[in-house]
């Protein structure tokens, strides 16, 4: 996990990142290590509305293709501001809906997306292309070209070894 954080920190070190943002829960580990390496705070978008934070929330709807359901995600407005340059980190990228929801929250704060770091991108799905076509810089540590008959084919060499 430390190496993942170092790799993302090196990839985005010239982007002026002020915050790292991820979606609970599996994105927390790589995002935490990235925030640590960059020396910036980590923000975690919640999938359930916290009882203690009922007002002043940025919200976005995210569709999970794995769970086949739409959920609302939340970030307190007190933690994300217009001057922030936010690096979004997640564990997997398939159809891009989680990352798009996080970019929507950043836009609501009138902040800027400094980039998107993905541990494993399923390149055979359209999420990476969707995010890149919208102008986001996406860095994926591993890109899976296909998964068939129990075999994983990588699109290119894995960045973090």
UniProtKB/TrEMBL annotation:
GO terms for biological process: purine ribonucleoside salvage; xanthine metabolic process. Its EC number is 2.4.2.22. InterPro entries: PRTase-like (IPR029057), PRTase_dom (IPR000836), Pur/Pyrimidine_PRTase (IPR050118), Xanthine_PRibTrfase (IPR010079). The keyword Transcription regulation does not apply. Keywords: Cytoplasm, Glycosyltransferase, Purine salvage, Transferase. GO terms for molecular function: xanthine phosphoribosyltransferase activity. PANTHER family: HYPOXANTHINE/GUANINE PHOSPHORIBOSYLTRANSFERASE, XANTHINE PHOSPHORIBOSYLTRANSFERASE. This is Xanthine phosphoribosyltransferase. It comes from Parageobacillus toebii NBRC 107807.
């Amino acid at each position: 996990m430390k190496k993942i954080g170092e790799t993302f920190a090196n990839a985005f070190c010239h982007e002026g990142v002020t915050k790292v943002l991820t979606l609970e829960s599996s994105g927390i580990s790589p995002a935490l290590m990235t925030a640590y390496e960059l020396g910036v705070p980590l923000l975690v978008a919640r999938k359930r509305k916290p009882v203690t934070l009922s007002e002043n929330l940025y919200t976005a709807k995210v569709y999970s293709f794995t769970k086949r359901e739409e959920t609302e995600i939340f970030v307190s407005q007190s933690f994300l501001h217009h001057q922030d340059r936010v690096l979004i980190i997640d564990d997997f990228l398939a159809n891009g809906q989680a990352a798009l929801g996080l970019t929507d929250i950043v836009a609501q704060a009138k902040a800027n997306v400094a980039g998107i770091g993905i541990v494993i991108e399923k390149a055979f799905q359209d999420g990476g292309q969707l995010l890149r076509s919208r102008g986001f810089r996406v860095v994926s540590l591993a890109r899976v070209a296909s998964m068939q008959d129990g075999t994983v084919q990588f699109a290119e060499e894995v960045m973090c070894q």
